[in-house]
Amino acid sequence: MKPVLLITGASRGIGAATAVLAAQNGWAVAVNYTQNALAADEVVRQIRQAGGTAISVQGDVGHEDQILALFAQVDAKLGRISGLVNSAGIVDMTSRVDEMSWARVERMMRINVLGSFACTREAIRRMSTRHGGEGGVIVNLSSAASRLGASGQYVDYAASKAAIDTLTLGVSKEVAGEGIRVNAVRPGVIDTEIHGSGGLPNRAKELAPLIPLQRAGTAQEVAQTIVWLLSDASSYITGTCIDVSGGR
């Protein structure tokens, strides 16, 4: 049987690229999405057309009840997971901190931080040898913003990703003796549609001259690092945040 991988926020961008590549590397993939069922179904179609195994599963990681339902569906349709990629996340319109509403920051932390916490918890309950599992791997999507701060744009997003860095470090040590490795990937400026949701659709191209490699990265380049961390090729790596940022 193929090992089972759940990827949150996998209907677009880095999540979608990771789903396709992971399936090519032998994973049965649960493609989670919040609203865009057509996009998620297209990712599943690509995987199945290439001979892989995949399902799409709806669930908003900003709500605990939907996270529980999401994991229950994966359990029922694919079986116990041995891989989790916490890819679901949001940015908001560019803004200074003194212009941010409580509602904006609360939503940011609920989806980006609480969602990853709860998904990690549910994964541990299925993977950990302490709970009768056989081990597994968790990869969190952080951001280079966690160490750059994103001043004048989205400090709230940067702070949420700094929390992911710490979650990665702390949980990795907590479950290392229970067969679970936990790492994070910190993408830099990646050419995906997420910039448009932050009001800067051309951000990747505009920032390219400021990046040592002189270009934005691609979703596929980030996916390659994620899938490597999911594989046995990285079997002695845990508690690490890997920058995929072109030197920025």
Order of H and E elements? EHEHEHEHEHHEHHHE
The structure class reads alpha/beta
- The low-confidence runs, each spanning 5 or more residues with pLDDT under 50, are none
Strand line-up of the largest beta sheet: 3-2-1-4-5-6-7
Distance between the termini: 40 Å
CA radius of gyration: 17 Å
Description:
By secondary structure, the chain is of the alpha/beta class. It has a single domain (4-244), classed as Rossmann fold (3-Layer(aba) Sandwich). The protein contains nine helices and seven strands; from the N terminus they run E-H-E-H-E-H-E-H-E-H-H-E-H-H-H-E. It has a seven-stranded parallel sheet with strand order 3-2-1-4-5-6-7, sandwiched between helices. Helix 1 links the parallel strand 1 (4-7) and strand 2 (28-33). Helix 1 runs parallel beside helix 2 (37-49) and helix 3 (64-77) packs parallel to helix 4 (102-127).
List keywords for this structure.
Rossmann fold, 7-stranded parallel β-sheet, 45% helix, 7 strands, single chain, 248 residues, alpha/beta
Question: Outline of this structure?
Answer:
This protein has 248 residues and is α/β, with parallel strands linked by helices. Helix content is 45%, strand content 15%.
